[in-house]
Protein backbone atom coordinates (compact mmCIF):
# COMPACT_ATOMS: atom_id res chain seq x y z
CA UNK A 1 0.00 0.00 0.00
CA UNK A 2 1.20 3.49 -0.90
CA UNK A 3 0.93 6.48 1.40
CA UNK A 4 -0.66 9.71 0.18
CA UNK A 5 2.61 11.66 0.30
CA UNK A 6 4.17 9.39 -2.30
CA UNK A 7 1.32 10.04 -4.74
CA UNK A 8 1.21 13.85 -4.53
CA UNK A 9 2.74 14.46 -7.98
CA UNK A 10 0.09 12.21 -9.56
CA UNK A 11 -2.66 13.80 -7.45
CA UNK A 12 -1.61 17.31 -8.52
CA UNK A 13 -1.52 16.29 -12.18
CA UNK A 14 -4.94 14.61 -11.99
CA UNK A 15 -6.34 17.76 -10.36
CA UNK A 16 -4.86 20.05 -13.05
CA UNK A 17 -6.07 17.88 -15.91
CA UNK A 18 -9.59 17.57 -14.47
CA UNK A 19 -10.33 21.30 -14.46
CA UNK A 20 -8.23 22.87 -17.25
CA UNK A 21 -8.94 26.54 -17.83
CA UNK A 22 -11.68 26.77 -15.19
CA UNK A 23 -11.09 30.09 -13.40
CA UNK A 24 -13.70 29.36 -10.74
CA UNK A 25 -12.48 25.88 -9.75
CA UNK A 26 -9.22 25.20 -11.56
CA UNK A 27 -5.56 25.51 -10.59
CA UNK A 28 -5.53 29.14 -9.34
CA UNK A 29 -8.42 28.35 -6.98
CA UNK A 30 -6.74 25.13 -5.83
CA UNK A 31 -3.46 26.92 -5.08
CA UNK A 32 -5.24 29.60 -3.03
CA UNK A 33 -7.23 26.99 -1.11
CA UNK A 34 -4.01 25.08 -0.42
CA UNK A 35 -2.44 28.25 1.01
CA UNK A 36 -5.53 28.94 3.13
CA UNK A 37 -5.58 25.32 4.31
CA UNK A 38 -2.01 25.72 5.56
CA UNK A 39 -3.06 28.81 7.53
CA UNK A 40 -6.11 27.09 9.04
CA UNK A 41 -4.27 23.86 9.77
CA UNK A 42 -1.75 25.68 11.97
CA UNK A 43 -4.72 26.18 14.29
CA UNK A 44 -6.73 22.97 13.78
CA UNK A 45 -3.77 20.57 13.40
CA UNK A 46 -5.25 17.94 11.12
CA UNK A 47 -3.42 15.27 9.11
CA UNK A 48 -1.71 17.37 6.42
CA UNK A 49 -1.34 14.69 3.70
CA UNK A 50 -5.10 14.01 3.88
CA UNK A 51 -5.80 17.75 3.74
CA UNK A 52 -3.41 18.36 0.85
CA UNK A 53 -4.84 15.51 -1.22
CA UNK A 54 -8.38 16.68 -0.42
CA UNK A 55 -7.60 20.24 -1.49
CA UNK A 56 -6.19 19.11 -4.83
CA UNK A 57 -9.15 16.82 -5.49
CA UNK A 58 -12.07 18.70 -3.93
CA UNK A 59 -13.45 20.22 -7.14
CA UNK A 60 -12.76 17.47 -9.70
CA UNK A 61 -16.49 16.67 -9.65
CA UNK A 62 -17.26 20.06 -11.21
CA UNK A 63 -16.45 18.49 -14.55
CA UNK A 64 -19.77 16.63 -14.09
CA UNK A 65 -21.80 19.69 -12.99
CA UNK A 66 -21.94 21.95 -9.95
CA UNK A 67 -24.90 20.62 -7.97
CA UNK A 68 -23.63 17.09 -7.44
CA UNK A 69 -19.94 17.88 -7.46
CA UNK A 70 -19.17 16.99 -3.81
CA UNK A 71 -20.52 13.45 -4.20
CA UNK A 72 -19.25 12.95 -7.75
CA UNK A 73 -15.88 14.44 -6.83
CA UNK A 74 -15.56 12.13 -3.83
CA UNK A 75 -16.36 9.14 -6.04
CA UNK A 76 -13.81 10.24 -8.64
CA UNK A 77 -11.13 10.89 -6.00
CA UNK A 78 -11.73 7.57 -4.25
CA UNK A 79 -11.51 5.68 -7.55
CA UNK A 80 -8.37 7.56 -8.57
CA UNK A 81 -6.58 7.12 -5.23
CA UNK A 82 -7.60 3.47 -4.99
CA UNK A 83 -6.19 2.94 -8.48
CA UNK A 84 -2.87 4.32 -7.25
CA UNK A 85 -2.82 1.74 -4.47
CA UNK A 86 -3.25 4.29 -1.67
CA UNK A 87 -4.08 2.95 1.79
CA UNK A 88 -7.86 2.45 2.06
CA UNK A 89 -8.21 4.39 5.31
CA UNK A 90 -6.57 7.47 3.81
CA UNK A 91 -8.70 7.16 0.68
CA UNK A 92 -11.87 7.05 2.78
CA UNK A 93 -10.82 10.11 4.79
CA UNK A 94 -10.14 12.11 1.61
CA UNK A 95 -13.53 11.06 0.23
CA UNK A 96 -15.29 12.29 3.38
CA UNK A 97 -13.49 15.64 3.19
CA UNK A 98 -14.59 16.15 -0.40
CA UNK A 99 -18.21 15.12 0.25
CA UNK A 100 -18.55 17.80 2.95
CA UNK A 101 -16.49 20.68 1.52
CA UNK A 102 -19.17 22.71 -0.29
CA UNK A 103 -21.26 25.27 1.56
CA UNK A 104 -23.80 25.31 -1.24
CA UNK A 105 -24.01 21.70 -2.41
CA UNK A 106 -22.81 19.30 0.31
CA UNK A 107 -25.49 17.29 2.03
CA UNK A 108 -23.25 16.35 5.00
CA UNK A 109 -21.38 18.43 7.56
CA UNK A 110 -17.59 18.28 7.86
CA UNK A 111 -16.88 16.06 10.87
CA UNK A 112 -13.12 15.49 10.95
CA UNK A 113 -10.40 18.07 11.53
CA UNK A 114 -9.27 17.57 7.96
CA UNK A 115 -12.77 18.11 6.56
CA UNK A 116 -13.14 21.28 8.61
CA UNK A 117 -9.82 22.61 7.33
CA UNK A 118 -10.94 22.04 3.72
CA UNK A 119 -14.38 23.54 4.40
CA UNK A 120 -12.85 26.69 5.93
CA UNK A 121 -10.10 27.03 3.31
CA UNK A 122 -12.51 26.63 0.39
CA UNK A 123 -14.86 29.15 2.03
CA UNK A 124 -12.08 31.69 2.47
CA UNK A 125 -11.83 31.89 -1.33
CA UNK A 126 -15.34 33.36 -1.40
CA UNK A 127 -13.98 36.61 0.04
CA UNK A 128 -11.56 39.39 -0.81
CA UNK A 129 -10.90 40.79 -4.29
CA UNK A 130 -10.59 37.34 -5.88
CA UNK A 131 -13.71 36.14 -4.07
CA UNK A 132 -15.58 39.17 -5.38
CA UNK A 133 -14.45 38.43 -8.95
CA UNK A 134 -15.35 34.74 -8.58
CA UNK A 135 -18.78 35.70 -7.21
CA UNK A 136 -19.55 38.00 -10.11
CA UNK A 137 -18.39 35.47 -12.71
CA UNK A 138 -20.34 32.68 -11.04
CA UNK A 139 -23.50 34.81 -10.89
CA UNK A 140 -23.23 35.85 -14.53
CA UNK A 141 -22.72 32.25 -15.67
CA UNK A 142 -26.05 31.32 -14.06
CA UNK A 143 -27.98 34.43 -15.09
CA UNK A 144 -26.51 37.49 -16.81
CA UNK A 145 -28.08 40.24 -14.69
CA UNK A 146 -27.28 42.65 -11.88
CA UNK A 147 -29.94 40.94 -9.76
CA UNK A 148 -28.03 37.68 -10.06
CA UNK A 149 -24.86 39.40 -8.83
CA UNK A 150 -26.73 40.94 -5.89
CA UNK A 151 -28.15 37.53 -4.90
CA UNK A 152 -24.78 35.78 -5.20
CA UNK A 153 -22.86 38.37 -3.19
CA UNK A 154 -25.59 38.61 -0.56
CA UNK A 155 -25.37 34.83 -0.14
CA UNK A 156 -21.58 35.06 0.26
CA UNK A 157 -21.89 37.68 2.96
CA UNK A 158 -24.40 35.44 4.71
CA UNK A 159 -21.71 32.76 4.92
CA UNK A 160 -19.36 34.94 6.98
CA UNK A 161 -20.19 33.20 10.23
CA UNK A 162 -20.12 29.57 9.06
CA UNK A 163 -16.46 28.81 9.72
CA UNK A 164 -14.84 26.48 12.24
CA UNK A 165 -11.48 28.15 12.83
CA UNK A 166 -10.64 31.50 14.35
CA UNK A 167 -8.06 31.89 11.58
CA UNK A 168 -10.73 31.73 8.88
CA UNK A 169 -13.11 33.98 10.84
CA UNK A 170 -10.44 36.70 11.13
CA UNK A 171 -9.60 36.39 7.44
CA UNK A 172 -13.25 36.58 6.37
CA UNK A 173 -14.02 39.50 8.68
CA UNK A 174 -11.19 41.47 7.07
CA UNK A 175 -11.82 40.38 3.48
CA UNK A 176 -15.61 40.68 3.41
CA UNK A 177 -15.37 44.49 3.43
CA UNK A 178 -14.67 44.70 -0.29
CA UNK A 179 -17.80 42.67 -1.05
CA UNK A 180 -19.89 44.76 1.37
CA UNK A 181 -18.66 47.97 -0.28
CA UNK A 182 -19.15 46.72 -3.83
CA UNK A 183 -22.62 45.36 -3.06
CA UNK A 184 -23.70 48.66 -1.50
CA UNK A 185 -22.38 50.60 -4.50
CA UNK A 186 -24.06 48.22 -6.94
CA UNK A 187 -27.42 48.45 -5.16
CA UNK A 188 -27.13 52.25 -4.99
CA UNK A 189 -26.35 52.48 -8.70
CA UNK A 190 -29.32 50.27 -9.54
CA UNK A 191 -31.70 52.55 -7.63
CA UNK A 192 -30.09 55.88 -8.58
CA UNK A 193 -32.48 57.77 -10.85
CA UNK A 194 -29.83 60.19 -12.08
CA UNK A 195 -28.63 57.88 -14.89
Describe this structure in words.
With about 200 residues, this protein is mostly helical. It folds into 2 domains: about 120 residues, Hypothetical protein af1432, CATH 1.10.3210.10; about 70 residues, no CATH class. It has 10 helices and no strands. The longest helix is centred in the first third of the chain and has 18 residues. It is globular and about 65 Å long. The N and C termini lie far apart (about 65 Å). About 40% of the residues are buried.
What's the short version?
With about 200 residues, the chain is mostly helical.
Q: What's the SSE blueprint?
A:
Elements: H1 8-18, H2 27-44, H3 48-57, H4 69-83, H5 88-99, H6 113-124, H7 128-142, H8 146-158, H9 166-175, H10 177-191
Helix pairs in contact: 1-3, 2-3, 2-6, 3-5, 3-6, 4-5, 5-6, 7-8, 7-10, 8-10
Entry keywords:
single chain; 195 residues; mainly alpha; Hypothetical protein af1432; 67% helix; globular
Quaternary structure classification = single chain
Estimate the helix proportion, in percent. 55-70%
Q: If helices are DSSP runs of H or I spanning 4 or more residues, what is the number of helices?
A: 10
Characterize the largest beta sheet: strand count, sense, and whether it forms a barrel.
Answer: none
Distance between the ends: 66 Å
The helix/strand order is: HHHHHHHHHH
Kindly identify the CATH topology of the largest domain. Answer: Hypothetical protein af1432
Amino acid sequence: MRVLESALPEIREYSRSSMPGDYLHGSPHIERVLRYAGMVNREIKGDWPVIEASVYLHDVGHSQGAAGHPVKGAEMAVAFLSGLGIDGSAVERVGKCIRSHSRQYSKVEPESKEARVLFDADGMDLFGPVGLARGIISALKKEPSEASIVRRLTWRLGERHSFYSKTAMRFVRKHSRIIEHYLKELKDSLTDSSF
